[in-house]
Fold:
Amino acid sequence: MRDVAIIGAGMIPFGRRDEDSLMDMLAYASLKALDDAGMGDKSVDAVYVANMGAGMLQHQTSVASALVDRLSLYPAAAESIENGPASGGSAVKNGLLAVASGYYDYVLVVGGEKMREVTGWRATDFVSTMTHPTAEYVYGITLPGMAGMFTRLYMEKYGLTRDMLLEVAIKNQSMGALNPYAHVEMAITREGIYDSPHSVVNNPPAADPLHLYDACPVSDGAAAVILCPLEMAKKAAKTPILIAGFGQATDTHTLQEREDPTDLKAVTLAAHQAFEMAKLKPSDIHVAELHDAFTILEIAESEHIGFFKKGEGGKAVLAGKTRLGGQIPINLSGGLKARGHPVGATGVAQVVEIVFQLRHELGKDRQVKNAENGLTVNFGGFGNNVVVFILRRVKQ
Amino acid sequence: MAIDMELEKVLRAPEVEQPPYPSKVITLANGKKMVVREVTRKDVPTLLKAVHPTLFIHRDYYDIVGARLYAELLGWYTYRVRNEYCIIGQVDGFLVGIVNGRMMNKDIGISLHTLAIDRGLRVGSHLFASKMEHHIEYLGQKEVLIVAESPIGFRRWMIEYGLEKTDIQHELGGASSYRLTRELYFDSKPRLVVGDRPVPPNLLAKAQEEILIADEDTIREHIAGLKGR
Structure:
């Protein structure tokens, strides 16, 4: 198997993009990644498109074929990858395997989703279709509902507090305010969302004990990367970023079937695989993008990866260990919480953000100094399908 | 324009004197302080400058809400609408939202429009709640008739307040009215109506000194966003 590197990365600002179709967004992000890779007139051998809901939301299927046509990338092989909110991670993994196998040299991986052209209710229902159809969905479960119950259990078992969740929200929105690609470019204060009696309106309960500002927004957006063999990447204009390790694991479809619903086994397993492959340990990671669709998930994932012991993740957030300059900076993009969560795009956007970090391209207010290794966690379902990547800056 | 005051007496609507709405201050999610206060007719020309750009923003029905609010404020300014009032929100002196309504009679209030200029901070929710507070607690009315012209309004008003559907034609001419009763208002008040009184003198003075209006491009950006351009 060949080593595989990322030679181009691009994304478009996430948010509400009324003027753009899904195909527009996928095309813009792809072109940015192709330009970033310095591909010029060179085409790619294959295209992997991560998307969860075009069939439901846009009444459009076969988006990969449509994108190849839109960008005149024929006769590139093309496939759409649907794996819930982990679609992006899955698409990067499929692109990685295709290049590693030696079958393709240049691969475009792009993820995108257009969720804002339906109402928030319909978007929530769309995302809920990933739950078990007869054991969960029919009873009205939503992802915020699941996250609320998960948070309550975490509070009971590990002593997690509302303060810890608030700190994640405040941290990530403060970083989103610095990220031009973020959907929510607005810092929030503890007074505004908790301490003031007025916060009852500003930050109403969403799914007890979670509130509005514990959840990510519903977003439109797209992100893309270009992969190629490491040996060829060394000739690229920009610093190549090696995909040093990856892991993917699954768990039961329903939460109730898990021996301990607070144990995110798929996160632990996927991270373990990635660390083994990269021959690294959690303390070697300099920056991470975790899947904080809800504030609780950033804390839980940081523990299951091994950054902190179980029950210590929330305390680490309060101690500032996950801020820029802390022990392990997490979600300096603003995370899903502020960058936004166009579900099909998210896993790719996480990789794009880490590429920017490892190429040392960000402003001082978001850049981890001398970052060499980065990690992403793309969390599908409610932890039933998880993809982890470890990226490494290639010394040239 | 010369005004024939004799004819004007016929054209102007007679009005009842309304108790004032006492100013309050609300802390927003970003920690900024929004002063909520009633304005007078003399402020209308300033407000119209802020409403004008919304006439051309199709997103989220801002055009229809903006056009109608513009006409209502102009109607109030020229004494062509009876018993109207207007409440605004200001942050650092800048106008961030406008609501208006009127007394149909002593007991029944009419909610007219709610226009948030700075979005994503629940400015519209806070100002709509202030409007309901004015009708029920300060004008002492028994009920307020409300319609929504946008899905956002429907979600914010009809669902969050649990309003009663009626067969009464709202005077805005669209769908049948929903009704906020005193009972519904006081049931909803703990979770939807907030604000501190009195407003600290420095904050109130800053707000009263001048209603600052962002330039048209900034207003359009606040409402429609830059993303995707």
Summary: Chain B has eight helices and eight strands.
